[in-house]
Each structure stands twice: as C-alpha cells, then as structure tokens.
Design goal:
The chain contains 2 helices and 17 strands. By secondary structure, the protein is mainly β. It folds into 2 domains: about 1-15 and about 165-230, no CATH class; about 25-160, Immunoglobulin-like (Sandwich). The strands form 4 sheets. Strands 6-7-4-10-11 form a 5-stranded antiparallel β-sheet, with no helix packed on it. The model is unreliable at about 10-25 (pLDDT under 50).
Length: about 230
C-alpha cells in the first residue's frame, strides 16, 4: 500500500521552514544528527522584564563534545571547563557600552559540537540569561527545565536527535518508543510505517486522512521499522 499511494501524497509535499520556538532562548538550527559534528544555534528572542540581554551562558552536557564556540557581534565569547579539561559551559558577554537601552533586539549565538550517538533522543542545553537594570542590578532568567510537562520551570533549549540521513528515502529502526512523531520528523516530507503515514506538511497530512487504506501515524514503538523521505 505504501508504494501505491506514496506518489499521490508526495506530490503535495513542499519544503517546510522550521518555526521559531516561543521560548525566549531556544534552538533555531533544527534537529541534530546523532554522532555528527554540526553547528547549533541559540536564538535569544527577548531580554528580561524589558531590559536588554548583556550575557548568555550555555551549559554543555557531558556527552556533547568537541565544543568550538563561534564568535558573535553580541559580545566576547569564553569557555568554562571541568576538572578533566572538557568544556562545560560557553559564555557570551557584552560591555555596558554595547548593551542597549531596552529589549528591542534579537540575537543568535552558535557553537560547533559533536552530538552523542543517541538517535531519537533529546539533548538539553540549560541556559542562563543575564540583563542589567539602570541601577546596575542584574536580573537572571534560567532556561533549565528538562521535563516538558513541568510548567514551573522555564524549558531548556533542546535538540531532537535524528539518525544520519540522506536526501530521498531512508530506512530506520526506532530504538525506543516515540510518543509523538512530530518531535523528530518536523522536517521530513513523509514518514511511513506499514500502511500508516505522517507528514508535517498540512496538504499532505490532509491527503493521508482521505486516502483509502492509509491511516495517520502518530506514535512509534521500540523496534518499529520506518521509511522516511527528506
């Protein structure tokens, strides 16, 4: 069934641009690739309580390695290391003269890093944002939540890890259960498991709903085999 209807569904598929997350500091570079080195971008959408951001610190998880922070016109970059010499934090800081009078600017900061070999998992980067008031006092916003269901803590910027892939069709075996396929396939054209399909494209998603013999794919179980087209 998949082969007999894929041409119909893919005919409606179009490229998607990842949407900016609502959090003040979030990952803007899209999904990560397991066991690969890539650039990870952090978008700073707002300051703190109407104040401009003067410093941002990103905590680096232990299984994220080969850290190389990228210079930014936001401010000077520095790194923090642990007892073994591994990079444990990256900090960007601007001077008082560079800090704006109000919360009017958007900033993007980036690091180059090797992500762990853990496809279909999430890597969190707890982040701390610092703003300075007119009286010199510092306001801190911590984006450190690791549990999406906990609304009492602001969420940490997160990268969804997908397996390495190529343009066209890819076959994957899912190692763990995935409760929400949208979390890992937001940039795919279409995902197939048997006669079930998913697409983040609204037009293709509507065709999935109305095509005879095809059901909507919403979740995956451990060891499911899937076909994904990018």
């Amino acid at each position: 069934m998949r082969r007999s209807v894929e041409a119909i569904l893919l005919g409606a598929a179009i490229s998607l641009v990842p949407a900016m997350a609502a959090a003040h500091i979030s990952i803007t570079s899209g999904p990560g690739f397991a066991n690969a080195t890539q650039i990870i971008k952090f978008g700073v959408g707002h300051g703190c309580e109407g104040l401009d951001t003067f410093s941002v610190k990103v905590d680096i998880p232990a299984d994220v390695t080969s850290i190389r922070p990228m210079p930014s016109d936001f401010g000077r970059v520095s790194v923090e290391t642990d007892a073994t010499g591994a990079v444990s934090g990256v900090v960007w800081t601007r001077t008082a003269q560079e800090t704006l009078e109000g919360d009017v600017a958007y900033y993007e900061l980036a690091i180059r890093a090797k992500l762990p070999d853990k496809g279909f998992s999430t890597v969190y980067f707890p982040t701390h944002q610092y703003c300075r008031g007119p009286d010199g006092g510092v306001i801190v916003s911590d984006w450190i939540g690791l549990d999406p269901t906990n609304t009492t803590v602001e969420p940490a910027p997160a990268v969804k890890l997908v397996p390495s892939r190529r343009a066209g069709w890819n076959k994957f075996t899912v190692p763990v259960a995935v409760a929400d396929v949208t979390a890992f396939f937001g940039d795919a054209l279409i995902v197939w498991k048997g006669n079930a399909a998913f697409s983040p494209n609204p037009a293709t998603a509507d065709l999935i709903k109305t095509t005879s013999g095809v059901t909507a794919l919403t979740a995956l179980a451990a060891n499911d085999e899937i076909w994904v087209k990018y």
